[in-house]
Amino acid sequence: MCGIVGYFRKEEGISITLKNRKADNATFPDVLCEGLRRLEYRGYDSAGIAVRDHKGIRVVKKKGKVEDLEAAIQRNNLNEKYTIGIAHTRWATHGVPNDANAHPHSSMDGSIAVVHNGIIENYKILKSSLEEQGYKFSSNTDSEVIPQLIHFFYKETNDFELAVQKTLSKLEGAYAFLAIHKDHEKIIGAKNGSPLCFGISDSEYIFGSDEAPFIDKTRRVIYLDDKDMLTVEKSAYTIRNFEGFDIQKEISEVPYDLEAIGKNGHEHFMMKEIHEQPETITNAFSSRINHINSLAVDNFPNLPHSINRIISLACGTSWHAALIGRYIIEKNTGIPVNAEYASEFRYMKPALFKDDVVIAISQSGQTADTKEALKLAIDSGCYCAGIVNVVGSDIARLAGKGLYLHAGPEIGVASTKAFTSQVIALNLLNLLLNSNRAYRSRVVGEMKSLPDKLQQTIERTEPLIEEIAQEFKNHSNFLYMGRGINYPVALEGALKLKEISYIHAEGYSAGEMKHGPIALIEESMPSLFILTGDGVGYSKTLSNLEEVKARKGRVIALTDNGKNLKHILTDKDYIIPTVETIDELSPVINIVPLQLMAYHIAKERGCEIDKPRNLAKSVTVE
Ligand code: AGP
How much is the pLDDT for 261? Predict the structure, then answer.
């Protein structure tokens, strides 16, 4: 998940809001960098620009944040009269953050430059066939195949647009990119899966991964759809589909201002991250499943043939995901799985065996306890891998193999989108370890429908959850309960409420309630039950819910079918209806209403949602 900007200046002289202050006659690179700064919430591990004038294309790119790029631009004296430029701020997916892997990427002769957001799934095949044609690559990224392919077809056609069109017919995956050519005063943009929009003002045209780069200059925007290709040149812009046929697009009005930037119009990063989960879970699986519902995962090379046991190491929310992984993998593969608190594991002198497989799960990839626990497993000679969001982070490098989440930067301290992507990653690991093709195809098929089901769940439940938040905002205790795979979802729901609203919330296996927590039940103690699916877990949880109702406890029931529920509840209780899916994927759907509930209750209580007290986004100390 990266941020891309394209800038086409029609007239001399530029004025723009820089670092929130009005600046006239800003330099061309300034404008590009300001655009990147506003997209840094999409990625910030490296950045770069390419500008074009009659002499050709100049590229400056650097590992680090936009200010590191600005320093490099200073050193390179980019102060010519440029009219065209493209820029990129990166969230690494393929190739660790460094100068060579930063964008823009160029064709071997430097005549074409490209910035790309997304994943080219078939890049390895394309790269090796281009290498056979004598092309030399200078990065480990998937993106570099784009300018090289355009160059290959440009040699054939001597037509920039046609060369891009032919390239599009070869690419597989989710992407949006911008391309420039040294001999053409044009920017060509193409979208297929990743976001791309186009701002129109009297003096300039501006591309962006969202409206941020141009919102202080124009509210007139065209949102490109998948398989759209937009060419902008001095006098005009044309939009065609990937087959080359012209299409008309309506110009819309951007509904919010500069202030709302980075949060996509939401008040907090946490809310933005909750709402972008349909997109981020797609990023987590789309490059690992193919069009015939089968798996394409090669991230765990030389996995032991007979796995003695899987041990997951994690903390906090990642540990809840690890627990869900246990339910999914042990049930469907018969391989024993231990979900270990890393902070405990590293001091308990664990018995580790040669054929044990150890998976370190971490959003940040920097959590000290998980890192040290992983080192211990590596030193014991176990097969170790990681499920991590931040590319190139310590845990990712230590593990050396595994799955990246591709969820993009998670800014809100309370983890949300990383959790749902971790559940997807653990489902992919489950499928990798499962030889039953019919089962695999069924889960992959359902996975593809999940983003829409998640979008429905958000739209369907949020209005009701705002009402529930109003009702329960002054409570100081809360119980969350579920059975089976819903137990770790209850733990995660309780953690979210604790973290940002400071209400004392506890997650419990519903079956454990009568062994203690039931003593807490009274009118002022609300209990949230997660009842989904039609297995024994549902009916057993229902009877636990009845035990609470028998003691006049208030109940919130989160359910995908509500069977035999209504008559048990009173008008003081609530039902949150979610969308049905298979057990393995249900945590991805069921946790989101609980994230929204924590958010709205915390908001009602006026809490500091993105940076809650006493917490850090990445716990790099013990
Ligand atoms: C979750 O909302 C918290 N931020 C915290 O529990 C977090 O999950 C934990 O610190 C682990 O972080 P990691 O995934 O980056 O390793």
Answer: 62
Say if CB 479 and CB 528 are below 8 A apart: yes
Residue 11, pLDDT score:
61
pTM to 2 decimal places: 0.78
DSSP symbol at 349: -
Q: For residue 316, give the ligand 1 atom closest to its CA.
A: 6
pLDDT at 351: 96
> Helix or strand or coil: residue 87?
strand
pLDDT the model gives residue 621: 80
Output the CA 501–ligand 1 centroid distance in Å: 17
Closest atom of ligand 1 relative to the 364 alpha carbon: 15
Give the residue ranges of the chain where pLDDT is below 50: 13-16, 19, 21
- The pLDDT tens digits of the residues spanning 59-79 come to 999 999 899 999 999 888 776
Question: What 3-state DSSP class applies to 268?
Answer: coil
Q: What is the reported pLDDT for 409? A: 83
Q: How far apart are CA 249 and CA 223, in angstroms?
A: 8
List the 220-223 sheet strands across, edge first: 56-63, 46-53, 84-90, 3-9, 204-208, 197-200, 220-223, 252-253
- The secondary element (H helix, E strand) that includes residue 317 is helix 316-333
pLDDT attached to residue 25: 59
Residue labelled with tokens 């040290």: 372
Q: Which of 269, 274, 317 to mutate to test the pocket of ligand 1 (most atoms within 8 A of CB)?
A: 317
Is the separation of the CB atoms in 587 and 423 below 8 Å? yes
Q: What is the pLDDT of residue 473?
A: 97
Ligand 1 cavity residues, CB under 6 Å: 315-318, 362-364, 367, 370, 413-415, 499, 618-619
Task: Give the Cα separation of 56 and 52 in Å (integer).
Answer: 6
Residues 242, 38: Cα–Cα separation, whole Å:
29
Q: Tell me if residue 382 is catalytic.
A: no
Are the C-beta atoms of 157 and 165 separated by less than 8 Å? no
Amino acid (one-letter) located at 511: G
